Amino acid sequence: MERDTESSKDQSHFSLEESFEKTDRSGRLFEQVYDYVVDRIKRREWAEHDRLPSIRQLANELQVHRLTVFKAYQLLKKDQLIYVKDKSGYYVHPASALPPQSIQKQSLEHHTRTHFSISIQKNHLAEVHSIPVTYQFSQALIDPNLLPNYYFSMHVKKVFDLYPKVLGTYAPVQGDEELRATLAAYFSLQHRFHLSSDELMITSGAQQALALVAKVFLKPRDVVMMECPTYSAAIDFFRQQGAQIISVDIHPNGFDLEQVEKVMRQAKPRLFYVNPTFHNPTGYTVPARQRKRLVELAEQYHCMLVEDDAFHDIYFDQEPPQPLFTYDTEGVVLYIRSFSKYVAPGLRIAALASRQSLMSNLLIAKSFIDNGTPLLNQKIFSHYFLSPRFQKHLAKLRIALEIRKEIMESELKGSGWRWTTPTGGLNLWLELPEHVHTNTLLAKSIDKSVSFVPGSICDPEQAMQRWLRLSYSYMNEQQIRIGMKRLLEQFYSLTDS
Q: Would the pTM count as exceeding 0.90?
């Protein structure tokens, strides 16, 4: 049995050095422990003179060797962030909240090298998107020919006439006041949100909003609930923050709320990332009764809900249920709404709604990233969003996308693939027969200039090897027909071999 480092005095100097060197070569784990402790002190979870966990306790909690924690504690003591009481343990130093300038510099250098050694994660979805192919079914983007390009060229001139100095002005970090007021009124009317413009932030796309949420509200080892499958980039964001991910299943009829409650009760997650409307990648929509109950569970178990609503307006038959935010009375829901995808993706406009108690920290984080989303983009979108032309564009776009979805489904009939027909959104989520893995199919399809998103990168456990996502929104009707024929040819070549 291992002996606790705090009480063992007969451990040889040689064995300590040998263990430290091994730790250093394996990724400097002690620096991760150092950052974990510093982060909790910064968040005031451990206040001045609070006793820290013992070496044994923290090693068990973080699932690392005790010597790793011991080395981290020694460095923290050297940096005057913690101190030792004989036969009592380690405590938060009273000066740790405002360390001397020299220590700030040392900690900054330490944090910088640690950040690059442990925090940079792959963006798996971006890797798939970057593959140059003719038949692009991996990107959930709108075909540029379906966007109001000619109208926009005239509209931009109008914006310049109204705001001749727009290119010489920064937007407020929180976003253009005119646009925030417009969106607050829209949300109140359309979704019954009780929302002021001060509870909205304009971001450069939904991904920036999601990155801000992860940065502000997560610390290493926090538990994050996610749907399985889910948006691949969100998995990467949360892992970059050092979060532990627990997944819950999503089905065509929504969630198993008993499973959701069990995870909330037992794992006490910091947040639950959800995409309940035309879910990415499955296209499923969570029914209204479940949405209300989900908010109640979040309130009961003190779990923040992060609602990503990128495709709300892309419905085919009837409008989807109201967002989770509609039911939020306690400030447990953060709502991310993207618009630019089906207006002009290059504008990168999204809105992040939260109660003011949470908004202040989000604003601080955004101020370090940029001086505000480009003002010109916000003005262009604001005036187009209010125009009658916008609603006409949406109506035509829904028809065009439904036609493309039906063409893709028609081409896939008889393949043996299984899927649930979505009632909106941009994607089909398909299951292959048991003997074919999507990674194998993707490699062969790329040779024929066809790409798609393999299901494994949409699964936090990377276990969904027979699922794939096909986006029907980017290719035109003829390209969909040709691309599906090529994709099925590669599939049949695998089943015949």
A: no
